[in-house]
Amino acid sequence: MTMAQGIDFAALVAAAGDAVVVSDPDGAITVWNPAATRIFGYTAEEAIGRSLDLITPERQRKRHWDGYAKTMKTGVTKYGADVLRVPAIHKDGHALSIAFTVAMLHGPDDQVTGIAAIIRDETQRWNDERDLRRRLADLESRVA
């Protein structure tokens, strides 16, 4: 795939319906688009420069940072194009369920410069599926 000349990538990121969050090798947020603000509640001014702990639930942080450090060290993510589904937190503290893909970013010297995550809020879908599972379990217990 070749990059088309004349594309305004900043405008593309700003217009995307999914959140685009980029973090540097230390895990500091460097890009935060309007969809990220809509999903997580933080403005770009509040998020840029802050740690990804901003949106990572405390109970998930050790696992997150262990994986992040390994990815930064090796330059390889084990997830490739897989969609990851994990909990997250909103600015007001409520729980979110997000789905995202990640892409490694490299500089001209091929050194890792960060990770881009394309994120979608799936909280409503997750809640709906949980409710359906509960209803199904209730119906199955009545039949048994």
Separate helix tally: 5
- What oligomeric arrangement do these chains adopt? single chain
Q: Tell me the total number of β-strands.
A: 5
The class by helix and strand makeup works out as alpha+beta
Question: What level of helicity do the residues show?
Answer: 25-40%
Identify the overall geometry.
Answer: globular
Q: Ends: how far apart?
A: 56 Å
- The topology string of helices and strands comes to HEEHHHEEEH
Q: List the strand order in the largest sheet.
A: 2-1-5-4-3
Mean pLDDT: 90
Low-confidence runs of at least 5 consecutive residues? none
Beta-strand content estimate: 25-35%
Largest sheet: 5 strands, antiparallel
Roughly how many Å is the radius of gyration? 18 Å
Q: Which structural traits does this protein have?
A:
single chain, alpha+beta
In short:
By secondary structure, the chain is an alpha+beta fold. 37% of the residues lie in helices and 26% in strands.
